[in-house]
């Protein structure tokens, strides 16, 4: 790929020219991590997900609750564990359905789990189910619980659209009005503009800028070309299609949508195109000169995921064979203006340091693809001495991972990105790839809104099977 031919001098020039960074900016098989702060081993038994579908397609008449319920029920059917062993459920969501504000609890009840199983819902943008996993790890490490389900759901086919602020205020006042006259007085004050809806946007509250705009500026700063982005997008779709065809995406559990004849059994956003076709698309955000297009960006997606994690001791008691150990993790945050999407370049070196590992020790990389430009910028950052010295506090660059081990089954650009469900998808793919590819360590990384990010280390469990 072309991006591997660029060096850190170009990154320095790009940052200086555009002012972004200145102004804002095969390993041993002993199966024992070099460093872990946990008093007990925490294991990843398995994970599942609904097929990830482009929003507005087959799932369009459902709600998030339906997908979340299916993921929890399907997880139990796949692993065949007694539902009563689950002591706690942590579930993520970003675009919240107001009728199921604690969707974790509602889905637990609907999926037939014990009504005495507590559940809570969390949000951390695109790393919400990563946070669900690590929250579960913390509860297990502290000895509060032994068996936890972590997951996430996103439903972009039906997002909450509100009345305007003034209309909401008038309606609340009218609800409290005691006389017909008071109500008529309030109604008479309504103006046509009050009927304009308050639409949610995929934009930063602090900057009012969409991620697409941020990705375009980041690609410019790191001198990532349109051709490089289209090449990476094509790579993602090609690898995902191959994995789908070879039957590697075993985390997908079919879903029979009510009133739909065919069972949904695969992701529907995977489309292998050509460089020529990709090159015809116009910029989606910065027009007319931007390089980020609909094809080299992740798309709005509906989907849910869930994973069973527990202490290793409990797993052995239950006769379950885990797929992987959940080892180290770290969360990072940085400037949300010009470093909004650089979470992986901050999280990767930190989590490697915590685990006393280096880039060459990692046999499986699963990194969230928000945009092709975002991925390539992070790779260039990892390969830059200048960036490492000025932003990571390191004397030399982290280094570029072996791209043969990087998102080998495709990623969010092709598989899809239901915001809060992606983290568990990354973890399940990591566990399954560690087994299929006979590797010891896997690293998960992702960026998220607010300039945040996550890095996680997983380790293959001895005797694990897909």
Automatic annotation (TrEMBL):
<dbReference type="InterPro" id="IPR020617">
    <property type="entry name" value="Thiolase_C"/>
</dbReference>
<protein>
    <recommendedName>
        <fullName>acetyl-CoA C-acyltransferase</fullName>
        <ecNumber>2.3.1.16</ecNumber>
    </recommendedName>
</protein>
<keyword id="KW-0276">Fatty acid metabolism</keyword>
<dbReference type="Pfam" id="PF00108">
    <property type="entry name" value="Thiolase_N"/>
</dbReference>
<keyword id="KW-0496">Mitochondrion</keyword>
<comment type="pathway">
    <text>Lipid metabolism; fatty acid beta-oxidation.</text>
</comment>
<comment type="similarity">
    <text>Belongs to the thiolase-like superfamily. Thiolase family.</text>
</comment>
<keyword id="KW-0808">Transferase</keyword>
<dbReference type="InterPro" id="IPR016039">
    <property type="entry name" value="Thiolase-like"/>
</dbReference>
<dbReference type="InterPro" id="IPR020610">
    <property type="entry name" value="Thiolase_AS"/>
</dbReference>
<dbReference type="InterPro" id="IPR002155">
    <property type="entry name" value="Thiolase"/>
</dbReference>
<keyword id="KW-0012">Acyltransferase</keyword>
<dbReference type="InterPro" id="IPR020616">
    <property type="entry name" value="Thiolase_N"/>
</dbReference>
<feature type="domain" description="Thiolase N-terminal">
    <location>
        <begin position="42"/>
        <end position="313"/>
    </location>
</feature>
<dbReference type="InterPro" id="IPR020613">
    <property type="entry name" value="Thiolase_CS"/>
</dbReference>
<feature type="domain" description="Thiolase C-terminal">
    <location>
        <begin position="320"/>
        <end position="460"/>
    </location>
</feature>
<keyword id="KW-0443">Lipid metabolism</keyword>
<dbReference type="InterPro" id="IPR020615">
    <property type="entry name" value="Thiolase_acyl_enz_int_AS"/>
</dbReference>
<dbReference type="Pfam" id="PF02803">
    <property type="entry name" value="Thiolase_C"/>
</dbReference>
